[in-house]
Each structure stands twice: as structure tokens, then as C-alpha cells.
Amino acid sequence: MTELLQNLIDGLGRGSIYALLALGVAVIFGVMHLLNFAHGEMITVSGYATLWAINQGWSWIAIVPLILVVSVVTSLVIERLAFSRVRGASDFTMLLTSFGVHFLVSAVFLLYVSASVKNFNRPSWVSNTFSVGSLNVEVFDSIVIAITAVTLVLTTLLLQRTMFGLSLRAAAADFDTARLMGVNSDSVIRGAFALSGLLAGIAGVFWLMRAGSTTPSAGIDPMLKGVLAALIGGLGSLRGAVLGGFALGLAEVLLRSWLPDGIASLTEGVVFALIALFFIFRPGGLVKVATAERV
Question: 111-144 as b/e, with b when 16 or more CB fall inside 10 Å?
């Protein structure tokens, strides 16, 4: 029982980061019906910003807001330079654009920075633990879970109780009608990308703290986790994105613990196989959204 509880806490810590990534994916999908495969590039750019800041002697107290700002700005720049050019195009065109952005950002860092892994110092408390009875709980996991819970509450309040949230939900439900009612489509889309970038930045803070390194392809893994979690939860549902993130994190940790030592390294493959089976029996995800309801 103790081992199970320990794994559940570890899984919730990992799943919290995935939930934040999935939320950012779900916000963009809700407004544009775009499954954004460039979502991980906010973490790639933030990773190199973190590397630069640490080399300049910055502390993590100053680096955290830097990551958030860089992530939001990167998201807005990507929207302005790439997605605004194909707005109104087919879903397939926008999907290809997101792939193009991903490969372009990776290529820029590969050509003009380095292809090698760049390591940087992590905060000293990342590996600290404290005891709760017979459980050893990581300080890092506790902070991730707490920050994720606060972020989810604030995001919900933003969408439910502000004019921006009302505009975002109106555009998600019916973009054409929302524009006829006076909603500024450019502002809504930019706001959605800014919110998505902020959520990616919060996830990126913890992702980079745990990784302690960055590469030109650093965004691939978080992008896949975010997209998978959003798909598991059900595209078009913020609640589903959160549930999908927790489900994915718990599945990874529990399988790594339960699989025999000889095949524990194949955890990722087993997780993907289980996800494939899940989609066969429940293709709409954990939370079914009628007619792909947006946001």
C-alpha cells in the first residue's frame, strides 16, 4: 500500500505538468480547431533563455518570470508570423503549419546555437524530500501539484467571470456569430495564444527545473505529452485535458513501477500501446464533447 501511495503522488506530480501542457493545447483547439504541434517550442525557446540567464548569473527567482514572459512572447510571435497567415485555411493546412513551425524553431537553434545538449544548474531543492508517515514526498512534486491546482482555478475563473473569457467562449462556440455580435476575432485569437503560452510557460518552469538541460529538439517530448493528454481527455474539453494529463502521468509512473526490470525501459512503448487500445474503445476520450465543443 505504501508503494502504491508513493507512486500515486509521483504520478500526480508528473501528471500535473502534463495537465498544464494539455490545457494550453486545448485552449488553441477550442478557438481555432487547431491541434498545435508547435506547442512545445515555447519550452525550447524558454530552455535557451534559461541557459543564457544562468550563464549570466541569474537566480531561479528571476528566471521563473523570464520563462513565463519568453513563453508568452514566443506564442504570440508564432501566431503573428505563422498562424495569422493561414487563418481561415483548411484544418490540414494549419496542421502542416504547426509542424513547419516546430521544425523551423528546431533548425534555427541547431544551426545557430548547437546540436549538443546544454546543461544548466537546477534549483538545489528539486531533489529534496520530506516524510509523511512512511511516505517520502518530493518537495518538487508538492509544489507542482499545488501550483497546478491554483492555475486550474484561476484559468476557470478567467474563462467564466471575465469579458475576455466570455469572448473566448463565444468565439469557441460559434466564431462567425461571435464576430457579428462585436467580438474582435484578432484579439480573441491573440488572447488565446497568450493564455496558451502562459500555461506552457508554467509547465516549462517545472519541466526545465526537472530536466536541467535543453536541446534544439527539447520541445518534442512536452509537445507529445500535451497533445496525448488532450486527446485522452477529449479534445474541446478543458476538464478533459486536465484529467488526461493526470491519467498519462499516473500511467507512466505505475507502469514503470509494475513492469519487470527487464522491460521497464519499454514503459513509453507500453503506454502508447495502452493509449491505442483506449482510443479503440473510447475514441472520444474521457470527456465526450458534442460536436467538438470549443473551450
Answer: eeeeeeebebebbeeeeeeeeeeeeebbebbbbb
Q: Which residues contact 65 (CB under 8 A, 6 or more apart)?
A: none
Q: Distance (Å, rounded) from C-alpha 233 to C-alpha 53? A: 36
Q: What is the pTM of this model?
A: 0.88
What angle separates helix 41-55 from helix 185-211, to the nearest 10 degrees?
Answer: 60
Please provide the distance, in angstroms rounded to a whole number, between the alpha carbons at the two ends of the chain: 38
Domain assignments of the chain as residue spans, ordered by start: 2-106+136-292
- Given a cut of 90, whether residue 141 has pLDDT beyond it is no
Kindly state the cell numbers that stand for 150: 491554483
Architecture field, domain 2-106+136-292: Orthogonal Bundle (1.10)
Report the distance separating Cα 216 and Cα 40, nearest Å.
Answer: 11
| Residue 76 to residues 72, 79, 179, Cα–Cα distance (Å) | 6, 5, 21
Mean pLDDT of 41-57: 94
Please give the grid coordinates belonging to residue 190. 491573440
- Dihedral sign computed on CA atoms, order 159, 152, 237, 272: positive
Alpha-carbon span 40 to 224, nearest angstrom: 8
pLDDT band with cut points at 50, 70 and 90 for residue 288: low
